[in-house]
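Bug #77: duplicate submission created two jobs. Keeping one. Sequence:
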Amino acid sequence: MSLPVLSERLRLPLAAGVRLSDRVRPTYAVWEITLRCDLACRHCGSRAGRARPAELTTTEALDLVTQMAELGVDEATIIGGEAYLRDDWHVLARALSDAGIRCSMTTGGRNLTAERVQQAKDAGIETVSVSIDGLERTHDHLRAFAGSHAATLRALDHLQAAGLPRSVNTQLCGVNLREIEALFELIAAREIHSWQVQITVAMGRAADHPELLLQPWQMLELMPLVARLARQTKAAGVRLWPASNIGYFGPYETLLRGDHPDCHQTGCEAGLRSLGIEANGDIKGCPSLPTREYVGGNIREHSLRDIWERAPGLRFNRDRGTEELWGRCAGCYYAGVCRSGCTWTGHVLFGRRGNNPYCHHRALELLREGRRERLELVTPAPGEPFDHGEYRLIEEPWPAATLARAQAVADRGEGWID
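Kept job's structure:
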């Protein structure tokens, strides 16, 4: 399979000095150790398939582990592409563990054999998250490979047999919402400890498939669904982990984030708590952010500490107020706390951060006015890893035929609008 890759090196200047706010330390890193993949998922933001040009050598990667430990990283998740397709994946995992960094792995699971599971366990990997995005037909469609759903269940079984803790991560999108509760019944039987859910974001291949993207008004359906999942998972002894692009500040916030210090979402953590590493050594404040706009530097040119402390691409959250918010986010009651929520989700829609229509509070406020928001593609994505197109946000009256149903779903917290 031939997939586009970014071939140019990003040579970016660093700031001359380090501010007090730059002394924060990343506690969590997500490390794409290769872009090589054995799937070609329709919703893959990185368009994984082939390895990147000039991926880090083993020696360079091991040096990066040392730098991560010195910077204060406590936990790292190795990903791809598909992490196990890099020959030294278990060597890097062992190095992270030996450096005192808790190591986990996220996988599509197509070829996570019993032998690879044992390698993961021997390398000190503490938990593995398997990506499952629906029941069999839907999952196989999204993963563009017949049999991928069965492979994920085998992967969970291998992990269970080896006694390696396991979790599941799921994207909520335009083709799977109504089968997500049934999916939980299936995966709970594998004794998972956690389930992460997030909405599909208009990046990479997902930008080429508008049918996979939810419309902002569908937060009225999605958030009650996630609340139901929270109650079901709690009863089953499974932790539900809503990702940072699910919310914000609607009636379910405390239910979903009651374990947070403030019991609510507190905005984007890119460059504050989190660190993203691409397989060629490019560094971002969050692994999901678009490469072109948010890479701060490359470890072949600068130390990890220098990039973390002095790269403009990683600094944007550190002294951030509400000055760059626009649209409905600019006038929101929660603007000072939320700051438009997930930067990744908003930026890939409009080419700049500061406005995020995937917000439950916002959808409810609009509904009270009899209005809703709808996204319409204007410029397609160019076809590169971590790329995006550009959308127009249309605010319009609710169609009369579905307004009453939307209000009923919002009031009762159950059912679907259409």
